[in-house]
Every structure is written in structure tokens, then in C-alpha cells.
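Q: What residues go here?
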């Protein structure tokens, strides 16, 4: 009951945050901050209540944490949450919160002025605090393990290094050989598209995917996101660009993928620590699967393109399905991660992973970041940022003290292909389903193998159970080579 009530409080906290991002009148920011702070304090007190530790110890002494049953998983997950909450002393958390707030303010100013030197001392501080945090949380092989584990249970630095290097060593030459070909035109996507029609089309698609509007809703924000207040209420947001089709269309598909996952968590885990998504990597695998593996596939547009043309006859009536497919899959090395295509996206992540690892290891000093950043962009993507704002100051994450987070984006991409392959093997003809706008079998497979389990299995075990394999870059590399090799006429 204690944990269930804490789960209620956490969901209420998420709802207040959602409202803050979507509807809060500007004059209410102070009051809302106060409400969130109080709620955060109450939740922290409950998370660290020594009584919880005593209950867990009693359960562990009776062997209740052993074996494969859901109840045993519940004890293990509750123990993990309790340890994480109690290992960081209040004074440290307070220091971190204060430093983070100053760091974020400095980052906003530095980015506006495109001047990294304003942010450098704060970055140094964030690295220092993260090292301290890693010590407090504890680790065996590498301090980065402890940090990354906060976002991806059970993953390791060593594994990331190996798998990411394999991906990088395949993606860099692929990008180079594609670059020797004539690039695709994305002009069809850059026209005036009325927002209401964009919304109607995207809404229709995600409804067909299986996003349940009885238990969700779609709103507008500057930065799109998905958030859950139990499986009965999972909301998404999107942003519209009246002169570019991609942000709202693929953004909505992406966030709906996140939300479909949360809507599918088993009802038996309501208000339990098992009733949440297991990790950010698995979460991202769900958004990427619907956004890219379905939403940017040729088969999908065979079904969806006629409707899109009917929605925008003046803009797309004269654009062939082939040209549209090429446009949405245009590969173009850019400076900005969030706008990257499937081939280059992971290279943006790679740069960040390698640099944050070097910062944590102390082989890179904060002051040296811009130079190192630019060198990696040149080496992997063949582009050099003209200034810090478009370079190492573009992401907010490090200013918030988040180290070990970026790799989850690439983990999501890799896992999405492994899962999609397994779903196709289990359901012969699944690609024909997609060409016919039938997503029921795909959704059922994901429900059965991923969604329903919530946090019951560790990510690695979940993947193993669903696909029979461990994390592997091979399937993603083969997917990239096949799709983009065909599109650009390159034999890879
Ligand atoms: Zn996402």
C-alpha cells in the first residue's frame, strides 16, 4: 500500500508537470514550482522511508525476491529503487540541485552568445558531481556504469563501447558512399501545409497504429513529449511547422510509439513499481519502431500516401509516391542531432557518448570540449560547426548534469530493428499487413513481448526473451545498408 500510494503521488506530480508544459498561465510559474517542490519532497521521504528498507529485508530473508515470478521481480525492483533513493545523502542532492540550476542558466546564456567559455566551469562542476554521484551509487568496472545504469538498467560501458564501435565503423563509410550519389530532393516536404490538416492526418495514422484516444490526448508544445499518469491516461504532444511536413508528422508517430508502450503495460502492475516502462532504451525502441521502421518504410506509404495526397492535393497531388518516399528518407549530414536522418542519427549520439565518457574518465578537460566536438563531427559526419551554439552547446542534457543518457537513443534504434525482425519472423506476411494499413498483428506482438511486462524483466532479459538474442548492432547495420543502399543505388 505504501508503494501504491507513492505511485499515485508520482503520477500526480507528472500531471502537474504536464500541465506546466502545456497549459500553465505564465503568472502561475512560481506557485506551480512550489507545488512540485513539495510533492517532490513528500515522494522522496516516502522513497527513503526506513520502513520500506525493513519490509524489503524481511521479504528477502524469506526468499521472496528469488525466482522468475512477478512478485519476486517486484521485490527486486523495489530494492533497486530504494537503494538508489537512499544512497545519495540529502546534502549531496541539495548541492547538485543548486549547481544544476546555475549550470542550466549559464548554458542558456552561453548558447545565446554562442560562447562556450561561459559554460565551461559549470560543465566541469557537472562532471565532478557526476563522479561523486557514481562513487555514492557504487560501481564495479567503470564510474560511467553507475551513471548510465540510472537510465538503462543493467547496461554496461564495456558493452556500449563494443556495440557502438561496430555501428560507427559501418555507418561512417556508408554515409561516405551515399554522399557520392546525387542527393534526394526534400522540396515536396517544404511547402505550406495547413496545421489543422497536418493534425487530422497524423491523428488518423496513430489511431490506426493503436494509440488509444480514450486513454490519451494530443496537445501542442514547443518540445514534443509523451507522459504517462498510469496506463489509463498517456498523453502526447507535438509541434507544427506550417512550412515543413516532417516535424508534426514524424514527431507524432514517434511520441505515439512511446505512448502505445505505456498504454500496453499489464493491468496487474497498476500502482506498482513494475507498472512503468523498464528503461529509456526500450522506450525509444518503441517510438523508433513506429516512426521509422513502419512510418518511413516504402510499404507503409503504399497504403498511406493516397490519403496524404487527398489531404494535401495542391501540395502533393503532383508528387509521386517514389519521390515522396525518397524525400522523407533523404540522408544529409547536419550539425543538429534532433533533425538527423536514420543513417547519421547514431553518429550524433556517438560523438556525445565518446566525449562524455572521456570527460568522466578525465582524459578530456571541460575547456577542451569545443575542439574535440568539432573534430569528431568532421571525422564522422564530414561537417564542422561554425560556432559553439550549433556545436557542443546544442543539447541541454549536460547542463542538467545528465551523463549516461545519450546512448539510450542509439540503444533504442538498435533494439527497434531487433524487435521488428523478431516480429516479422513470428508473423509471416507482416510486411503485407503494413502495406495494407493493418497493424493489429504487430501491435499484438509488441503487447505480448514487450509492453505488458512493464518493469518485470531487466532490459537485456526482455530483449532476449522477445528475440532470442542479446543486444547486437548487426541487424541495424544490415537494415541501413539495405534500405539506403537500394534508395541511393549503392551496393554496400
Ligand atoms: Zn523518443
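A:
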Amino acid at each position: 500500500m505504501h508503494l501504491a500510494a507513492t505511485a499515485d503521488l508520482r503520477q500526480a506530480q507528472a500531471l502537474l508537470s504536464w500541465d506546466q508544459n502545456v497549459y500553465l498561465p505564465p503568472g502561475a510559474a512560481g506557485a506551480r514550482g512550489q507545488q512540485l517542490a513539495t510533492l517532490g519532497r513528500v515522494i522522496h521521504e516516502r522513497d527513503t522511508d526506513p520502513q520500506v528498507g525493513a519490509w524489503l529485508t524481511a521479504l528477502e530473508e524469506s526468499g521472496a525476491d528469488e525466482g522468475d515470478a512477478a512478485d519476486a521481480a517486484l521485490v527486486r525492483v523495489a530494492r533497486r529503487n530504494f537503494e538508489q533513493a537512499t544512497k545519495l545523502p540529502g546534502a549531496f542532492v541539495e548541492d547538485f540541485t543548486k549547481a544544476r540550476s546555475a549550470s542550466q542558466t549559464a548554458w542558456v546564456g552561453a548558447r545565446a552568445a554562442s560562447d562556450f567559455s561561459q559554460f565551461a566551469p559549470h560543465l566541469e562542476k557537472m562532471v565532478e558531481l557526476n563522479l561523486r554521484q557514481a562513487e555514492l551509487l557504487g560501481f564495479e568496472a567503470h564510474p560511467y556504469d553507475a551513471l548510465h545504469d540510472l537510465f538503462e538498467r543493467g547496461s554496461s560501458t564495456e558493452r556500449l563501447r563494443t556495440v557502438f564501435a561496430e555501428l560507427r565503423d559501418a555507418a561512417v563509410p556508408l554515409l561516405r558512399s551515399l554522399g557520392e550519389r546525387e542527393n534526394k530532393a526534400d522540396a515536396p516536404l517544404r511547402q505550406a501545409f495547413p496545421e489543422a490538416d497536418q493534425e487530422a492526418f497524423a491523428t488518423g495514422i496513430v489511431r490506426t497504429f493503436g494509440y488509444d484516444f480514450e486513454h490519451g490526448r494530443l496537445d501542442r508544445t514547443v518540445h514534443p513529449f509523451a507522459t504517462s499518469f498510469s496506463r489509463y491516461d498517456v498523453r502526447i504532444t507535438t509541434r507544427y511547422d506550417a512550412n515543413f511536413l516532417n516535424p508534426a508528422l514524424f514527431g507524432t508517430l514517434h511520441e505515439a510509439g512511446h505512448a502505445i508502450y505505456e498504454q500496453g503495460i499489464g493491468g496487474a502492475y497498476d500502482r506498482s513499481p513494475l507498472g512503468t516502462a523498464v528503461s529509456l532504451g526500450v522506450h525509444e525502441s518503441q517510438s523508433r519502431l513506429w516512426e521509422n521502421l513502419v512510418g518511413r518504410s516504402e510499404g507503409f506509404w503504399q497504403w498511406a500516401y493516397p490519403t496524404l495526397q487527398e489531404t494535401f492535393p495542391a501540395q502533393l497531388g503532383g508528387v509521386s509516391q517514389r519521390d515522396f518516399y525518397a524525400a522523407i528518407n533523404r540522408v544529409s549530414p547536419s550539425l543538429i542531432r534532433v533533425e538527423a536522418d536514420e543513417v547519421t542519427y547514431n553518429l550524433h549520439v556517438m560523438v556525445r557518448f565518446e566525449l562524455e565518457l572521456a570527460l568522466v574518465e578525465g582524459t578530456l578537460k571541460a575547456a577542451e570540449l569545443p575542439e574535440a566536438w568539432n573534430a569528431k563531427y568532421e571525422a564522422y559526419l564530414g561537417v564542422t560547426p561554425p560556432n559553439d551554439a550549433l556545436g557542443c552547446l546544442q543539447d541541454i542534457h549536460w547542463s542538467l548534469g545528465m551523463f549516461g543518457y545519450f546512448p539510450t537513443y542509439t540503444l533504442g534504434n538498435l533494439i527497434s530493428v531487433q524487435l521488428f525482425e523478431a516480429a516479422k519472423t513470428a508473423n509471416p506476411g507482416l510486411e503485407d499487413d503494413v502495406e495494407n494499413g493493418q497493424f493489429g498483428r504487430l501491435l499484438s506482438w509488441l503487447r505480448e513481448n514487450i509492453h505488458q511486462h512493464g518493469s518485470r524483466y531487466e532490459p537485456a532479459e526482455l530483449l532476449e526473451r522477445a528475440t532470442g538474442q542479446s543486444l547486437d548492432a548487426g541487424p541495424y547495420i544490415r537494415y541501413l545498408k539495405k534500405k539506403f543502399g537500394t534508395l541511393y543505388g549503392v551496393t554496400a
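A: Context that may help when evaluating the design: Residues 254, 258, 284, 287 surround zinc ion (CB under 6 Å). The first strand starts at residue 218 and ends at 220.
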